[in-house]
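Researcher: Here's the sequence for the chain we discussed earlier.
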Amino acid sequence: MRDFQIPGRSMVIAENGMAATSHPLASKVAIQTLEQGGNAVDAAIAAAVLLGICEPQMTGIGGDCFILVKPGGEERVIGLNGSGHAPAGLDAAHLRSAGDVIPEGSAHAVTIPGAMDAFITLAKDWGKLGLKSCLAPAIHYAEQGVPVAERVAFDWALAADSLQGVARQDYLLSGRAPGTGQVFRAPKQAAALREVAMEGRDGFYAGPVAEDMVAALQAAGGTHTLEDFAAHKAEYVEPITGQYKGYELIEMPPNGQGAAAILLGNILSEFDLSTMDPFGVDRTHLEAEAVKLAYDARNRFIADPAASAQYLDHMLAPETAKKLAALIDMERAMEAPAELTEAVHRDTIYLTVVDRDRMAVSLIYSIFHSFGSGIASDKYSILFQNRGAGFTLAEGHPNEAGPGKRPMHTIIPAMLRKNGRIIMPFGVMGGQYQSAGHMRFLSNMADYGMNVQAAIDAPRAFPREGFLDLERGYGPDVRAALTERGHLIRVPDVAIGGGQAIRIDTEGGVLWGASDARKDGAALGY
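Model: Thanks. This is the structure I predict for it:
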């Protein structure tokens, strides 16, 4: 039980259904969808698409998603890869002639938006209400507007300069980022969503909306064609799993970085974290060193599914983790095993919904960097992600940019299984932090007995760019001791990530929801 004299959040407890998202309006819409007879899939789609209006710097229909679904009355988990491919005309050799990386604000960084086909597929295969009902709330609020929340305003101001061309007209108010409480409207996107509601997949990947997107990308120098959009399809995949202290961690396979979370868990399993202070020097040091090793493997091996397949068994093998764990010196920080070749970012939304029948959805949805590429289409103002910046231009690398390939993705949804039962859909936002965040959250519960809200709220650390970022929740004595061990300590300007989770109490019959105070969101139940 938390100390009620210290500011914090209680868990939200309900019987019939629960939603946890990064914006209160999206949580409200998800619960309303459940109350109207929809299931967790319907509610998750409705909330996700609406978040593109509530948090356009984080996500939108020009982005990608990954989804895990537990059907009601079952314990199996289904994965859906909603990430987009590079256009057929992408040429790594040509890009190398211009530089070492794909510029984050260029059309070359834009892969085909994959999320919408995933939502359409999911609504058809697993939803109850139909696509029109799922899109209706987002259409309404895109037209009527949404007051800008505090964290959203903070992020918007930081990234406003990344917007280009028509995006500056449509995503700024009188040339400036909207402040807290100002109303943001997106009537052009409402028109695009109406096309999808009426025409289904062809309303986005063909016809006027696709033509608008292709025209904008070609005008910006991209090689995208209508054929590239028509060829995209979301793909059902088999999740991958790992074990940690009696929990089974369920993750998406590559091209997401879920394998890095499992590898990190396997490395940490070689140590007894429960004997360490949860917010002390040893645990923080150990996790930082293990993250460096797991992320080095990630950067070497995670790529398009076809390119990663030959490395996956190696990453998940306990023997690999044992060898890596042996490299950790508990008294001294190592230098970064390899320079990260992928772009660094922290912009994503995560949501989870569980319904009366205990169907559970774990969904993560992003446009990569804040406001993605900064490029928007003219007629429908669809803001494009820049997931192609996650490719490397290193020749022969598994994640080398190439036509039709999917880049390495940092966004990953997750679930936990214990004693054969799915007990929790969860996710942690924060760009490349997400694999580390998954294991931090799980360890907080497994090693220290924290409840789901406390496990999310706990202070975070992350090694990045040669520094060890420590949130202000760590004390000065811990910072000093970590410095003595060789870490370069930095307090990040922005809180590390966010998160949501719903615990399914199979014995008590209730749901326990949690949402991260680092964002504007909320868990709601009924």
